[in-house]
Each structure stands twice: as C-alpha cells, then as structure tokens.
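Try this one yourself first.
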C-alpha cells in the first residue's frame, strides 16, 4: 500500500478559498520532477490554527498508519519565483538528510510598517537572520529554530493541534513544542502578496 513518501503533499491554509495559481502549478511540477503523486490539501476554518490542524488531520486520514509525514506548507498569498527543479532538489536533499527546510519570506508590522525576515536562529530572541546572512548561506547550512509556516517543507507530527495565545501565533508554538525538528534554510525566490509586495 502506498505511503506518504510516494506523494508530494501541498498543504495550503486559506480564509477566502483562494491561492496563487502560479505557485500551485509550480509545486505540481515539483511532484512531477520527483515522480510522485500530487496531493493538494487545502483547508480553511474559523482561524489559521484550526485550518492548519485540519491539514494535518486530512493527511492522517489518508495515511492512518503514519504518525509523521512531510508536507509542503504554502500560505495562499505566497508567489513562488524559484524553479520547480530547484525546489525538487531541495526536497530530495531534505529527505536524504532527514531534515526539514524553510524558505524566507517577509512580513510587515502594521503598526511600525517595519518589514522583516521570518527565519530566526533562536526561539528565545526576536533577532531574525539578516538579508546578508541569508544571501551568503549555502542551502541547508543555516540551522533555524523558528520560521513562519508559509513556505516550508516540514516533517510533521500528524496528531499536532495548532494554537495561538495572546500575541504569539501558531508557528511560534509549533516550533516551541517540536524543538526536535531539524530545520534548515534554503533560498526560495518568492513574493509575499500584500497591499505591497514584500
């Protein structure tokens, strides 16, 4: 019986049932380069925590005998510019090494209008990797303790239930609760489609 490793699973959370068609098509091509079946796992709900948890439940329902599975998380507003062949290469290398990887994208503080990278070396610090550090790093060289879950290939515990409390979001709690995940940085060219491209 086929297992999750026979598939390339793309998990998208969306509050408005939309996603960037180009990014979905590019990741479908990734599955073809890998020679795997493509699973499009789109979930919405009462909030992002609920939608992410539903994504994991859908994977568990498809592979009930598995406790962990790789999925490519993509936020619905991320536009990929990286070649599918490069992304497929990163997927193969991550699986060979037994690690997960994150690509960087930018977020913005609506109060201060400050933009910053989502990849950080530590959970205990608000310091994130700089543009210079990220651009100088070779793929898989930088270890990360935290990143947003908007653009990453993660080996996920399928029974995990996402949550957010106060000002801390679901991605912070996920990495705090799963510090055994070996997360690395890879350069994936992208835009974050907000009122201005980030």
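Now uncover the answer:
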């Amino acid at each position: 019986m086929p297992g999750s490793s026979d598939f390339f699973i793309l998990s998208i959370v969306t509050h408005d049932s939309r996603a960037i068609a180009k990014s979905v098509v590019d990741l479908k091509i990734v599955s073809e380069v890998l020679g795997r079946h493509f699973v499009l796992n789109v979930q919405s709900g009462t909030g992002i925590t609920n939608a992410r948890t539903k994504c994991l439940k859908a994977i568990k329902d498809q592979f009930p005998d598995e406790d962990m599975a790789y999925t490519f998380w993509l936020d619905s507003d991320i536009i990929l510019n990286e070649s599918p062949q490069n992304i497929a290469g990163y997927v193969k290398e991550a699986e060979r090494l037994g690690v997960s990887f994150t690509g960087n994208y930018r977020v913005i503080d609506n109060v201060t209008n400050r933009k910053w990278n989502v990849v950080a070396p530590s959970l205990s610090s608000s310091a994130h990797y700089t543009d210079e550090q990220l651009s100088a790093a070779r793929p898989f060289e930088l270890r990360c303790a935290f990143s947003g879950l908007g653009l990453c290939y993660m080996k996920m515990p399928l029974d995990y239930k996402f949550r957010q409390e106060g000002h801390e979001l679901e991605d912070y709690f996920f990495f705090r609760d799963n510090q055994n995940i070996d997360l690395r940085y890879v350069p994936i060219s992208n835009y974050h489609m907000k009122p201005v491209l980030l």
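Discussion: The helical segments are 21-34, 48-62, 84-97, 131-136, 170-177. The chain has one domain: 4-192.
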